[in-house]
Amino acid sequence: MSIGTxxxxxxxxxxxxxxxxxxxxxxxxxxxxxxxMEKQLDVEHYARIAHEDFHSKENSELGLTITDYxxxxxxxxxxxxxxxxxxxxxxxxxRF
Length: 96
Description:
Layout: E1 7-12, E2 31-36, H1 40-54, H2 57-62, H3 66-92
Antiparallel strand pairs: 1-2
Helix pairs in contact: 1-3
């Protein structure tokens, strides 16, 4: 990320997801991530995939949460970014 990177918040909210909210309550506490704006579409895409994974037949046996799936996708994204950065560093001749 460059010094001029712009940031935004991404909110992963769970209202009406787990069906545990009490009437009149504030709902389930969301998770908030600070993300680079340039990655916003990617993050939204992986949040949708996490939602689909959570509601899949396979998950009825696994019992994972949306957060579990989203965090897994987040790790994959970060790993891909590190690999890309390493490759560009190697291509440029810079060594650490």
